[in-house]
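quick one, 88 residues, struct below
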Amino acid sequence: MMGGLTFMCNGKMCVGVLKDELMCRIDPAFHEEATSKPGCRTLDFTKRPMSGFILVEQSAIATQQAFDYWIDLALAFNEQAKASRKKK
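---
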């Protein structure tokens, strides 16, 4: 969808890799707080900001603890996220 590698969880987009950044689908209510963290920004695929989708630079996931933080955040939202409709 976005020209990268995407990992699904429970039939829903959860995390992925876009160029050299980690893409995470997070709770939109947490979006502003997440993007205030160093190395994190809003995914603006096709120049349209997407609330709840963030990109995290390599420098912000350099440690296992930092990487796990973003993965856990995406997995936590995955429980609530709606799956997109399947094409017939």
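The mean pLDDT is 90.
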